[in-house]
Every structure is written in C-alpha cells, then in structure tokens.
Design the sequence.
C-alpha cells in the first residue's frame, strides 16, 4: 500500500506535488492534475474537464491502485484554460467572457465536488461525462429511477470491492444520465452530469466517500470483516435501461432473483437520506406490476434467446411474492400494500393453481423425467441448466415462505379469508415436504421428484439449507441432513470455502442436464451450474447451520468467504481469461460469464448470525 509520504515523493518526481491538511495530497504535471487521500484518488486532464484516473477505498485504507476509468470522452473537442488553486482545478473557455469557469473540481480528504456555472458565452457547455470500465469494476448507481437512463439525485455511486460515494446535486430538478452496456467491445458504465444552463445557472455535484453497512459492535475494528463493510450493498445493481434491480448494471433482471435483493434490503441501512434499498425493491416490483418481464417469465427475450420455456419458472411467483411481502412488512407501507394487493394475490393464486394433481406442491409444466431435456427449454428454477421439473424442492421451499409471509400481510390488510387460505396451503405443504423430497438412500433432500415418481438427488446443499432455513425441516432431521453434507464435502474433497459452495456435490447425469453450452464444456462436473462453486445460495446453508447450533461448521464457510469478499474474488475476470469469477471450478479456475452476479453477495448476511451466536 502506498503511503502518503511515498505518494508525494513519487508525484514530485513526475511533476509538482504538495500536501494539504488532513491527509489530502494534490499534484500536477504537464498533462494531469490530481488529488489523493486515503479514501479516493482522482486525476483530471489539464486541458479539458475529464477524469483519467478514478479509484476509491471507502474504509480509508488507501487501497487505490485500480483505475476504473474506461477512457476520456473526446466528444468535446474544445481545449480549455485551466487554473489551479490549492485544492481545486477550474476550466475556462478560451473565448472571452465573464470570469466564470465552465467546470471546477474541488477536493477535501473525504469528498470532492464538481461545480458548473453558466453565462451566455457558455451556452453550448457539454456535460461532465465519466465512462467506467465494467471489465475493471462493475460499478452501479443506486437511487430512484422512473424512466430509462434517468437517475434522480441524491443517489449512491457504488464500486463493489472498493466502496461508495453518496452523490448530491444542489439543484433538485437536475437529473443524472446513467447508462451501461456489456454487448460492446469495451463494456461500460457511463454517467453524464449536466452542465449549467440558463435555467440552472450554478450547479454543484457533491461526492461523499462512505461505506454503507449495518453497525455491529462485535465486528468493530476487526479487519476480518472489511469485506462486509465495503461490500454490504453489493447485492444491489440497477440496470439503467430497464431502471430495475438486475444481475448487474448491464445484465438481465431475473424475476426469480428479486427475493435475494429483498432479503438483503431488510438489513440494509439508508443508502442516502430519503432512499433505502427497499425503495429499489419497491420500484422494481412496480415495474413488474406495470408489465415488465424478467428472465424466468414466458415472453422474456434477450440477445441470448431469453426465457425459452412454455411456462414461468416455478420460483418466479414465490420470489415476487416474498419480495413484496418483505417490502410491506419492513416498511409498514400498508398503503402500497393495499394498492397492489390484487397483483400479489393474483401471483399467489396462479402459483397455487399449478398444483394440478392436488398433492400440495406447486408444479412445473415439464415432467423433469430423465432424458426429457433438449438443451433449449428451460428447467423449473434458478438452477436453469439442471433438469428440475414437476415437483421441485427449491421452488416449493420458496412457495412455503411466500404463503407464510402473505398470510401475515393479508391479516394486516384485513383480508382474513385470504390469510386463512394461504396459511392452509403453507401448512399442508410443510406437512408433506420432508417425506416427499427426503431420499432415504442418501439421507438428504433430493432436488426434485419427476412426474414418473423418481427422486433426483445430486447432494444439493443450498436447497437443503434453504428448506431448513425456511422452517420446513424439524431440528433433529435438519442436523442429520447438514452433518451428512459436512461429511460428504470431506469425502468428495471440497474444502476451499473461499470459493463459496457448489450447488451440487456430485455430477448431474447428462440425462438430467439441459445446457445450451454442451460443446464448450459447460456440462462437465465442477463447471458452471453443474457443481461449480459460487457465492450464490451460500447464505441459506450458513443460516441453516447457525440455526441448528452448528456454529463451527457455519464459520468454517463464512469466514473464508469474508476473506474472499475482502479481496474482490467474486467479481471480474480471472487473469488471462475471458471467463469470470462468479462461477469457479473447485481448483479456482473461472467458469463464469456474467462478470458480476448480485446473488453472490447475499452471504454477507451470515455476519448477523455470527454476531448473534457469540
């Protein structure tokens, strides 16, 4: 880590450097002007208002080596006159006019600002545009969006594994242009801050370095939890083109993944004054209410083909119901609950109606029989290349939680008959769940029971953890199940919990796999969804272990994962590879393709279990 003293010495060799009080260093050379504190490092061009380097460490540790800037926006061909003050650089047009800068950047140790002023000679001033390299960091902007590419202030600019800035604007009616794209050679996240004009003659954009996480006394000043502090809000990524929560800022919104974000939002402090993570969940639900489709829903299309199934995934409705109920219960926004109750009830009624044979379980339209998959049609749930079908243990565990939560919400809204109906469905599902999915040959829950009556069991650890966490399995049986998984992991040689957990501990047979990537090796064991290691779903297992009193086993998974979060091991590309860190083989080789999958970070919630167990 570079020290402030060393930084000043190095900068002095390159140009001119001087220091300001409170650990802010300012330097300049022939082409660049910059600031560095222990919280951020920025460089700007000297002849135009543009960043050439941008890095942050919201914990103030001075970890600032990563430059997130993709490149300079050269659409403004003008060359400006710059004037450098002790803690600022101002850009003036070279044409004559009032002595007001078009843009001025000013810094202090934990914040900086961009100020723009208008005069009649500056009528054509361009926005201050910043393009971040998504391959370097999957940054995102979090806040209120009501239309494509338009972010309202205040908002949060978040850099996973690095930290965050709360961003404010002095003019309430001014908005931020926000865009992202991964289908181009240079994947980007782009921001454009409007210049002052005759309607807004003096605008200041303020950036405040901040780490947003819940304060827990037991982890205070403990560096093992630095990954928790920097990355607590990593579960939230806003896609600006659909203005909804998504896998990442340039990826799909998955209806069946929204519940991950809603669960994390329950524990998240305010993002910025007046805006919470639950607001982002609510706004995304509003988009679904308004007709938006996500991956997992019939009719959803993307460049990869979209959701190629005749049926909504079995976990889509439970995910949306859980998210809506968590929002209502957490915020006490009963007005929103009443206004949208019919939507939520309709989702629930359609979900329950899939129990076509009246055995108490929601069902998928495809049989799930071995050999029935063609590599195109999608299986029943999040694990969308494994042949889950018919009665699916994962989706039914979510359906139980969805009905339990909605029964409580219905009571609060005085929908008593609905509450009884949802309670009854949940109770019936729970009474049958263990016997229906328990595999006596392995001693754990199978992944699904196909239409031909066969159980399909590949030691799905996350699914078993979810069922236990959601209260479907009694404590004695739960302990036996989780102990078998602990033993099985040792037997198969899975010991590196810094990688997260595999979804399944033994290879899924080819006849139970449905992948469009067979030729590229994605059906091989430990590759991608077929036993690949990931942070996704790990929280279910950690929480289940703590719930069962298996503290040692829980922490043997949680603590290595926190170390990985600290070092950025779940986002971006492996060195020298075009595959990404969101999925890995057991030896650590990357096999992901998203680059960033928001579900990878839900395991930070295990720190709450850790705190309660001490």
Sequence:
């Amino acid at each position: 880590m570079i020290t402030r003293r060393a930084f000043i010495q190095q900068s002095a060799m390159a140009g001119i450097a001087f220091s300001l009080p409170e650990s802010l260093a300012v330097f300049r050379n022939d082409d660049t002007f910059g600031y560095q504190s222990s919280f951020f490092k920025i460089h700007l061009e000297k002849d135009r208002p543009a960043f050439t380097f941008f890095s942050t460490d919201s914990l103030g540790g001075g970890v600032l080596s990563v430059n997130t800037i993709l490149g300079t926006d050269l659409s403004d061909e003008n060359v400006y006159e710059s004037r450098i003050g002790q803690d600022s650089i101002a850009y003036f047009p070279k044409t004559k006019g009032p002595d007001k800068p078009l843009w001025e950047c000013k810094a202090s140790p934990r914040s900086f600002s961009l100020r723009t002023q208008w005069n009649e000679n500056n009528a054509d001033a361009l926005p201050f545009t910043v393009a971040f390299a998504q391959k370097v960091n999957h940054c995102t902007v979090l806040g209120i969006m009501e239309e494509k590419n338009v972010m309202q202030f205040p908002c949060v600019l978040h850099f996973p594994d690095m930290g965050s800035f709360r961003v404010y604007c002095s003019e309430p009616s001014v908005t931020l242009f926000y865009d992202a794209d991964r289908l181009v050679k240079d994947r980007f996240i782009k921001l454009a801050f409007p210049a002052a004009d005759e309607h807004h003659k003096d605008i200041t954009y303020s950036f405040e370095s901040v780490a947003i996480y819940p304060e827990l006394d037991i982890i205070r000043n403990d560096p093992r939890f630095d990954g928790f502090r920097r990355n607590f809000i990593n579960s939230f990524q806003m896609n600006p083109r659909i203005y909804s929560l998504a896998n990442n800022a340039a990826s799909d919104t998955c209806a069946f993944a929204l519940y991950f974000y809603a669960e994390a939002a329950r524990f998240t402090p305010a993002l910025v004054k007046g805006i919470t993570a639950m607001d982002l969940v609510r706004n995304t639900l509003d988009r679904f209410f308004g007709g938006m489709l996500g991956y997992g829903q019939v009719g959803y299309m993307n460049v990869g083909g979209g959701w190629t199934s005749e049926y909504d995934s079995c976990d889509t409705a439970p995910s949306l119901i859980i998210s809506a109920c968590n929002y209502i219960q957490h915020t006490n926004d009963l007005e929103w609950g009443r206004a949208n109750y019919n939507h939520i009830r309709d989702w629930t009624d359609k979900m329950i109606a899939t129990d076509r044979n009246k055995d108490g379980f929601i069902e998928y339209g495809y049989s799930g029989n071995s050999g029935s998959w063609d590599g195109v049609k999608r299986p029943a749930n999040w694990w969308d290349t494994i042949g889950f079908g018919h009665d699916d243990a994962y989706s039914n565990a979510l359906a139980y939680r969805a009905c339990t939560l909605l029964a409580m919400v219905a009571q609060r809204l005085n929908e008593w008959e609905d509450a009884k109906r949802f309670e009854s469905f949940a109770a019936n599902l729970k009474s049958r769940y263990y016997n229906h999915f328990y595999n006596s040959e392995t001693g754990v829950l199978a992944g699904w029971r196909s239409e031909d009556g066969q159980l399909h069991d590949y030691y799905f650890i996350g699914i078993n953890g979810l069922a236990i966490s959601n209260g479907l399995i009694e404590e004695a049986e739960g302990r036996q199940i989780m102990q078998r998984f602990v033993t099985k992991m040792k037997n198969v040689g899975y010991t590196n919990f810094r990688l997260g957990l595999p979804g399944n501990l033994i290879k899924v047979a080819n006849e139970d796999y449905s992948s469009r990537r067979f030729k590229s090796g994605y059906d091989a064991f430990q590759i991608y969804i077929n036993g690949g290691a990931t942070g996704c779903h790990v929280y279910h297992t950690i929480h289940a272990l703590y719930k069962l009193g298996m503290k040692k086993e829980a922490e043997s998974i949680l603590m290595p994962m926190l170390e990985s979060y600290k070092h950025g091991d779940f986002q971006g590309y492996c060195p020298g590879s075009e595959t990404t860190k969101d999925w890995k083989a057991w030896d650590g080789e990357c096999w992901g393709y998203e680059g960033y999958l928001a579900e990878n970070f839900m395991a930070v919630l295990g720190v709450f279990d850790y705190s309660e167990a001490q």
Observations:
- The chain is about 30% helix and 20% strand.
